[in-house]
Amino acid sequence: MKVVKSLLLGSAAGLVAVAGAQAADLPVKAKPVQYVKICTLYGDGWYYIPGSDTCIQFSVYIRSDYGYNVAGARTPNYAGAGGAQDRTTSNYSTRHRGSFSIDTRTQTAYGTLRTFSQFHLQNENTVESTNVARAFIQWGGFTFGHTVSFTDHEGSVGALGTLHAPQNDSNTDVSVNGTNQIAYTWQLGNGVTLNVGADERRVKSIADLSRVGSVSAGTEPVSARAGSNHPNPWVALRVNQAWGRASVAVVANHNEAAHFTGPFAGLCAGGNTATTYCGHPDDAWGWAVIAGTEIKLDFLSPGSRFGAYFNYGVGATAYSGGVNLVSPGLYGSGNQVAFGVLSDGVYVNGLGIQQTTAWTVGGGFEYYWTRNFSSTVYGTYTEVSYNSTVTDGRWFCGGGGAVAQPLNTAGTSCDPGFKFWTVGTHHDWFPVRGLRFAVDVMYTGIDSAMDGQTVTLTTKQGNRPSGVYSAKNPGITSVVFRAQRTWGAN
């Protein structure tokens, strides 16, 4: 009887222990789930971040580009090794990109607080890269961060759809790189804004022509620019109304050179050339005016539009000539070559900076044949010129205190100026929403200021030998095909 009683008591104790353990493992009462709510303040695709009054939107695109006669970033092969047009030139180019964007907005007593970031993961010609294309904050009229500049004009050829990187289109959004800036915007009403600010500097070379090897055909001059001390200030007026958009901006560019390379008498000689003993040219302020417009032509067909722009500047060729434009060096048949030198300014020992003048005009027309198929025609024209002090003094041919440069040694003129022009057509097909197929065909022409003269090139470009060439005006045709899938806001 005692054995049975002990067994019963032990079983009861075990059951109590097990029940206690199971009770301890039971889940506590869950808190109510806060579901994601749709935010209707800013259009489709916005949601409230749970537990906050901040709205968020995500967007992504996957893009594949295939190009012929183009280098990186869809650039026609008119300069560098590509401009040599020899057996070393890679005429086929590919670029594949995944892009991810995050946009957040919160209503405050001082207006909308916005943050935006965009990241590119890219493989271009088998080279992997990452890029923070956008990262900025906007609040109370201020913009801080990396974004499209307020100075970039409307009517951009790139904005009208071309897949090439328009070399003489000053819009930084074309290259997808943006700029670091601080800006303030006044809303003047009726779609008009006045903007002031300062951007990370967009500059080209300041060439010391007294330095051996400062200039080579088809490449950028070796820059003797001094260190940067401040961003470039600007002011811009922009209009966005039912008929379209327009903008005009004025930007200043401070050109500062390093020290003379001498040798001068006294301390600026021997091992002390190009030091503080030698002095430097006086600083010069460059400037540019950037203007453009885009006009809606919905009366022709929904989405159709026309865009045009005009830029002019002195000592600010990255604005007036284009941020993507470089010194051309395009070889044609036989011993023909088209070349030019792009710079913000040049100087020789003992003299000041002679700033380069550049102006650009461009335009395009986009027509929607149907709601999902459009065609664009476009063209651009840029002229880069040097003043009479440089050309009459034959600075690029070893005159006026310069050393002999690899340009013209036999002709009567020594002018490294040039004209750069493009004409092209672009076609877009959207078979379903968010899916795009496009093709762009463009012809690029280079007109040398020394056309018809004999030019002695003392440096090689690609596998082109040095020697005597005839300055001509050849051109190049390039083609780009794109496939892109987009979802979200892009």
Describe the overall structure.
With about 500 residues, this protein is mostly beta strands. About 10% of the residues lie in helices and about 45% in strands. The protein has five helices and 24 strands. It has a 16-stranded antiparallel beta barrel. Strands 14-15-23-22 form a four-stranded mixed sheet. The protein has a three-stranded mixed sheet with strand order 9-16-17, with no helix packed on it. The longest helix has 24 residues. The protein is globular. It starts with a helix and ends with a strand.
User: What gyration radius follows from the Cα positions, in whole Å?
Assistant: 30 Å
**Could you tell me how far the N terminus lies from the C terminus, measured between alpha carbons in angstroms?**
84 Å
Taking strands numbered 1, 2, ... along the chain, how are they ordered across the largest sheet? Answer: 2-3-4-5-6-7-8-10-11-12-13-18-19-20-21-24
What is the H-and-E element order?
HEEHEEEEHEEEEEEEHEEEEEEHEEEEE
Structural class comes to mainly beta
Share in helix: under 10%
Number of helices: 5
Shape: globular
The strand count comes to 24
How much of the sequence is in beta strands?
35-45%
For the residues shown, what is the average pLDDT?
86
Spans of at least 5 consecutive residues whose pLDDT stays below 50 are 1-5, 11-25, 170-175
- Strand count, sense and closure of the main sheet? 16 strands, antiparallel, barrel
